[in-house]
Amino acid sequence: MITLDTIRAAHDRIRPHIHHTPVLTNQTLNDRTGASLFFKCENFQKIGAFKARGGLNAVLQVVDTKAGKAVATHSSGNHAQAVAYAARQVGLPAYIVMPRTAPQVKKDAVRGYGAEVIECEPTQAAREAGVQTIIDETGAVLVHPYDDEWVIAGQATAATELITDFGQPPFDLILTPVGGGGLLSGTALATHFLSPTTRVIGCEPEGAADAVLSFQSGQVESAPYIDTIADGLMARLSDRTLGYIRQHVSAILTVPDADIIAAMRLVWERMKIIIEPSCAVTLAVVLRYPDQFAGKKVGVILTGGNVDLGKLPF
Amino acid sequence: MITLDTIRAAHDRIRPHIHHTPVLTNQTLNDRTGASLFFKCENFQKIGAFKARGGLNAVLQVVDTKAGKAVATHSSGNHAQAVAYAARQVGLPAYIVMPRTAPQVKKDAVRGYGAEVIECEPTQAAREAGVQTIIDETGAVLVHPYDDEWVIAGQATAATELITDFGQPPFDLILTPVGGGGLLSGTALATHFLSPTTRVIGCEPEGAADAVLSFQSGQVESAPYIDTIADGLMARLSDRTLGYIRQHVSAILTVPDADIIAAMRLVWERMKIIIEPSCAVTLAVVLRYPDQFAGKKVGVILTGGNVDLGKLPF
């Protein structure tokens, strides 16, 4: 089980390698929503996303416990860069299995951190088999993108900073996106320990609505369909993340892609910062369900800013 | 003449209405340039650009001295929004003459601040005549975008914050774009008073290269041709701004548009913040003339982030 001490130890472990990211506010967005919004800018984090926190905590733990002489994962997204970056920081080899169809720019970014990219067919089975082969051959330790206590404890440090920097009186609500549930779990745990009166809400695209169903049923469910611009939020929960979320999260709210794109554009235009589609789902929820947020102090974790500028949705 | 007291009084006057903007750094850009770059983020300023500072100082001065019951200007850019915003803050009517060909989104933004937009033919003569008519009819006071001591003193407050927040040892260099020269003049004056060992460099597009010629000749020159994506930097210097620049600026360096676009993209991708083309000319200069900046501590004023997301150059 993750305790406050686990999270604090994670924070101490990763602190030399991460940014303590700023919290921004915006008058126009406050006027528009009637809420007081406080945006924790993990788009300014190392590798451009909060995933650096969890990846670092897991990789540093591998080093501290001498669990292995390399790390491996499969990912086509920010977690791939996070593990590659973390491994470079500590001098471990990293093997990243990526679908051969992943954008060249993402493969290049991972290689830019010195990791080895192993291409595979673009199926979940091929990705998992590819990683297993690497582990068997090299003795690398798997760093799962979310179904991992070290990763979750690392992701919890974003909310820890947000809550600690904010001081009193506490937030009414804290919002994060939910994909596999690592960030939402970590955020809910940190909030439970550090700001117990604050409610945590997970925000999910309608086109990858597994978490809202799992939250209701108590079992890991699949999304009815997968079709969303939020490519970082397509994964299902695990038993582990569902457990933390059922225990410490108040609600999961969903929004359609049109709302996500509109919210993303609003942040770009009004806050002058770059966020990726998966990151915009939180503000989209605030705009879609205004009655739940008006008059409230709301912490929002902006998760990442890695977009392909050649393929913008507007 | 503008003194340190003038600038400090301007800062006190406008402080309740502006953001004290943050200074960001970026490891990738430092590695790439060999310099230590400190970016003063006026793209996060009210109205999305530093122009809010000068506009406010001038408009507040009109109120303090009872110089008139309204303000007027002609602009199709950030100065129009700055004057409109400033006038709304103090409850004065504002009349903004804009070419009828200006983008609807810019006219709407000005109207959104409660100012009256007067459309004119898209020529300099029509703009000036339009403003004169307004002044004659309403008794409004002209707020010139740069040929104005109050405006220059207001723009000087950006460098004042940058220098004061940075502390010791001082910057080796501070860079700003140069169009009409209001920001460059204010920056050079503030730096002269507060950090006299720091050199100030103006950065100009090759496609609007009037300031570099005027700096050499000592007279206000026209650009050989006007053709640049940096639409905020097309104006010529005035005798006033040329005087300040000749006195306190070390050099003016020019860059082609391809460099400006590449620098803009680099900031978007690496810093995850939105800057407009006119704002990217400073980093473009650092990248084009690396020998002048390697190993140096360089303050860079990021001037604005107002871009039409539907018309990006990449």
Automatic annotation (TrEMBL), chains A, B:
Determine the domain of life of the protein's source.
Answer: Bacteria
Q: Which UniProt keywords apply?
A: Lyase, Pyridoxal phosphate
Task: Cite the GO molecular-function annotations of the record.
Answer: ATP binding; D-serine ammonia-lyase activity; L-serine ammonia-lyase activity; magnesium ion binding; pyridoxal phosphate binding; serine racemase activity; threonine racemase activity
Q: Which Gene3D superfamilies match?
A: 3.40.50.1100
Q: Which cofactor does it need?
A: pyridoxal 5'-phosphate
Boundaries of each Tryptophan synthase beta chain-like PALP domain copy?
Answer: 14-304
Q: Name one Pfam family in it.
A: PALP
Q: Give the GO terms filed under biological process for this record.
A: D-serine biosynthetic process
Q: Which CDD domains match?
A: Thr-dehyd
- Family according to the record: Belongs to the serine/threonine dehydratase family.
What PANTHER family is this protein classified in? SERINE / THREONINE RACEMASE FAMILY MEMBER, SERINE RACEMASE
What protein is this chain from? Threonine dehydratase
Source species: Spirosoma oryzae
